[in-house]
């Protein structure tokens, strides 16, 4: 748990703040000015509640029942019924970090003063986060339109003291958890049920977490490429700055700069430079690494732009405008987020694909420049890393399936009132699986590349790639030798990849 505190209601949250609350347990506090805004907009809602004319979400039903007037004495039941009926998720539990993004991002919208909830709703959501109460949210239930309705309803249900939650990993009923934390369960008033579930918070939260992961993984992909190029006696000449400038793509330039840094001081690369090197050019998986990794970087930059805009958004329906109107709108539609989630899944699949191709080259005696078949100690008796490459290939095949866009699908719901939906939640869920797969494919390339480096002895790798090799060895993953149980090694190095340890070793080692 971190000791940092994130203030909500002053300015839009930053991606880093969201990640800090989701993954590091940062506490949240509500700015006093935000609570003042919330109280002011609530006064408007209460005026409408007294109006005999129907107002959507205040004195009417929801969705296809928007024209059904609800008498004042039934409205609290209406709000509670909305949450209970919409908490219809099913399937596996969603990860705690994702649920915490749901809680935080909905809190940010509530604190905007544009949703019409009472101040106690805002303070209760903050209290749940700070107490580490994580509502149990299920995998399926959101269509990514009218907000992530079911996931957000599960969060709201917990705030009402109903349903199940986890605290420090332990499952318990929400009422018990709230009582232990001295948090009074919410009794929802007019408009508040809608305000708690009409948001793109789930898909946005998963996008922000994915961007944080990809910042690490794309740097690591460059490290992996350097390991492969170096150990396969490739050339770094093709990454020259003037050649990159002929195609002024920003991501490509960044990846090429990493390769120049990691390969420029390598004794292995230097050993075959010059006119005596008969290789005209390397295969695409080595030579075009900056172009592929760079395209993924540019995709991440675009997705970050969309995510940053969404962090400034107030998504609710109806919404209280700055001049005091209460208006229906369609800002809950998840298309902007769903598109970039799908776009990222395509980039992830392709980065993993080129990584697997580099691994395969390292194991093929016809292409690996005089390394042993499968990098085995005694080919025939030993299989080396043969099946590790199978694992990478199987993951890449799965990532290609996960790259099929979710956002092009739509299934009408709510008696055709909600007749076009984004499927953004589904796009986010498959991207999380894809990122996990990419990390594993890169880990297999790290294992392969570092073993190949050892087999080039007495030639020595560059400082950065050598530091990665040393990290892997110090983590218990042995170098060349007779066959050993491979799966634990892949799991160990996957952890090093995801944590950023491989990236840090490479670039810190280069500048040591």
From TrEMBL:
Belongs to the PAL/histidase family. PANTHER family: HISTIDINE AMMONIA-LYASE (PTHR10362). Its main location: cytoplasm. It is an enzyme of class 4 (lyase). It is found in: Cytoplasm. Keywords: Histidine metabolism, Lyase. GO terms for molecular function: histidine ammonia-lyase activity. GO terms for biological process: L-histidine catabolic process to glutamate and formamide; L-histidine catabolic process to glutamate and formate. One of its GO terms (cellular component) is cytoplasm. Pfam families: Lyase_aromatic (PF00221). It catalyses: L-histidine = trans-urocanate + NH4(+). The keyword Lyase applies. InterPro entries: Aromatic_Lyase (IPR001106), Fumarase/histidase_N (IPR024083), HutH (IPR005921), L-Aspartase-like (IPR008948), Phe/His_NH3-lyase_AS (IPR022313). Pathway: Amino-acid degradation; L-histidine degradation into L-glutamate; N-formimidoyl-L-glutamate from L-histidine: step 1/3. Its EC number is 4.3.1.3. The keyword Lyase applies. The gene is hutH. This is Histidine ammonia-lyase.
